[in-house]
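Subject: for your reference before the review

Hello V.,

The reviewers asked for a structural picture of the protein, and I figured it would be easier to keep everything in one thread rather than splitting it across files. Below is the amino acid sequence we used in the manuscript, unchanged from the supplementary table.
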Amino acid sequence: MSLTGFTSTTFRVRYAETDQMGVVYYANYFIWFEVGRTDFCRQRGFAYRDMEEQDQLYIIVAEARCRYKAPAHYDDEVEVRTYLKDVRKRVLVFGYEIYRTATDELLAEGETVHVITNREGRPRPLPDKYRELLLTGAEET
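And here is what came back from the structure prediction:
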């Protein structure tokens, strides 16, 4: 369930992301989740770097999962739809859906759970300014 609608990031599968059969290696989906997540934040008005430099806060991955539905192949155009599933005092949960754009076929879905920490790795509350930006912003596309 999305709290705010989703953002969309589209790109082509690179040859380096595939195996000998031209199928995307499973771990690359987690990299695509990160690409979607950083774009989500940018489209909401801030970058991870802002949190690190201005507030000395970090968004660390505490849990990640992916369910693979169909293979992506070299040169497919794929879309990562990223949305915010939950925001708590010190925790963010992002959801992801990856589609082949030519057919709108769902290739994978997943989520990542993040803890907000300081530089030493100690949990810290998410500042209101970031909470507001995450919960508002771009309309669902």
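For the response letter, the relevant points are probably these. The chain has one domain: 6-135. The mean pLDDT is 93.

Happy to draft the paragraph if you're swamped.

O.
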